[in-house]
Amino acid sequence: MPHHFPSTVAGTVEHEVVVTRSRFITTVAPVTGVADAERVVAEVRRRYWDARHNCSAMVTGVLGDQARSSDDGEPSGTAGVPMLEVLRRRDLTDVVAVVTRYFGGVKLGAGGLVRAYSTSVSETLDRAALVHRVELTRVDVSAPHADAGRIDNVLRQWVQHHGATFDDPEYGSAVGFTLWVPEDAVDLLRAELAATSGGALAPVVGGTRVVDVPSA
């Protein structure tokens, strides 16, 4: 059964909301890990150096198993954790959210802060393009040079219709093709190769990798 992996965002998105005269400016960005997320937080702090708060939340790791948050001076539990919960509910990873607050002179109370910070992140994510992650299985096919052109065409057309990817062929005594195929499509590929080659091509299956697939 294919594994499920959290998605991430395709690029940096900024969005601002105003709540009772306080400005909440949210920056959401894709990251490669904790260090990269901390770099984004530092950049936002430099950009909005005069803001009262730059609260943050991040989720990292292929499985989304690492998480951190910061209230940055807001009452404990009113900013970072609500922001983090939004990222969790959206099933995201390798992402950081920073909410910059310019205080408007009116206190919002704990409940108001929780709503403001969570809404800020949620509305920003509504504007973000997502990148889904899937696990693909490696399939290697070796073909004689005389048949390589025809097999190449068949495989390239096949991957376009089955959510697979295709590495550059390797040329040696034979031509090696490497495909990365959804687990539930491996048998379909075997059948396609058998029909194309009269059973002469025997694919070798082994190994997996997780790849990013932009949302349509």
From TrEMBL:
Highest rank taxon of the organism: Bacteria
Domain Impact N-terminal: residue ranges: 21-125
Matching InterPro entries: EFG_III/V, Impact, Impact_N, Impact_N_sf, Ribosomal_Su5_D2-typ_SF, UPF0029_Impact_C, UPF0029_Impact_CS
Pfam families: DUF1949, Impact_N
UPF0029 domain sequence ranges: 142-199
Family in the record: Belongs to the IMPACT family.
Name of the protein this chain belongs to: YigZ family protein
Organism: Curtobacterium subtropicum
Taxonomic lineage from the root: Bacteria, Bacillati, Actinomycetota, Actinomycetes, Micrococcales
